[in-house]
Amino acid sequence: MQIISKSAQETIELGRRLGSVCKGGSVISLRGSLGAGKTVLAKGIAQALEINEAIVSPTFTLIQEYEGKYKLFHMDLYRLSGTDEFEMIGGEEMLYGKGITLIEWSEKIQEMLPDSTIYVDISIMPNQERVITIEGIEL
Ligand SMILES: Nc1ncnc2c1ncn2[C@@H]1O[C@H](COP(=O)(O)OP(=O)(O)O)[C@@H](O)[C@H]1O
Ligand SMILES: [Mg+2]
Q1: Side-chain half-sphere CA neighbours of 19 within 13 A
Q2: CA 96 to CA 82: how far, in whole Å?
Q3: Which residues make beta-bridge pairs with 131?
Q4: Sign (positive/negative) of CA torsion 96, 102, 108, 111?
Q5: Distance separating alpha carbons of residues 135 and 120, to the nearest angstrom
Q6: CB within 6 Å of ligand 1 — which residues?
Q7: Which residue's CA is minimally distant from atom 10 of ligand 1?
Q8: Dist. CA 67–CA 129, nearest whole Å
Q9: CA-32 nearest atom, ligand 1
């Protein structure tokens, strides 16, 4: 499915819908350029999981873990050196665990993603609206 988001608030709202249909073990790949709205969408997903803690971009930590309806692993792999580092920081166990895993810059570990991965692609249009394409789950 494809939707147009006209504001950060609309993207949060979409994240909430997505988060409410996710099950434990879901892996969501968030793709799109810097500033597209991947972290904004992650905030909406976290709201649906009833996570009260503020979602901060895990740019330097690579992975942030939160407790909610499900455990949430929020990854930003922009600075990841490669799949070796991903294994070293325990990323693979998270992908196959009971929690929900959101991955910004998942391209870095493409070959490690489960077949069941949900793909969300966000692109910025010239008028600044976002085109958001979701594959692998029905909303
Ligand atoms: N429709 C929209 N959806 C999401 N973010 C938007 C939208 N319009 C403007 N923005 C702004 O774009 C920025 C997206 O930032 P962020 O989610 O951190 O990007 P990313 O994680 O993809 O690098 C925020 O400042 C947000 O307010
Ligand atoms: Mg981000």
Answers
A1: 27
A2: 19
A3: 4, 123
A4: positive
A5: 7
A6: 5-8, 10-11, 32, 34-40, 57, 104, 128, 130
A7: 8
A8: 32
A9: 22
Judge whether 138 and 17 are in contact, CB under 8 Å. no
Domains of the chain, CATH where assigned: 2-135 (3.40.50.300)
Read off the pLDDT of residues 36-84 as tens digits, 9 standing for 90 and up.
Answer: 999 999 999 999 999 999 999 998 899 999 999 999 999 999 999 999 9
Structure tokens that stand for 91 in this block: 């990323």
pLDDT tens digits for 80-101?
Answer: 999 999 999 999 999 999 999 9
Report the amino acid identity of residue 103.
I
Locus of tokens 């792999």: 77
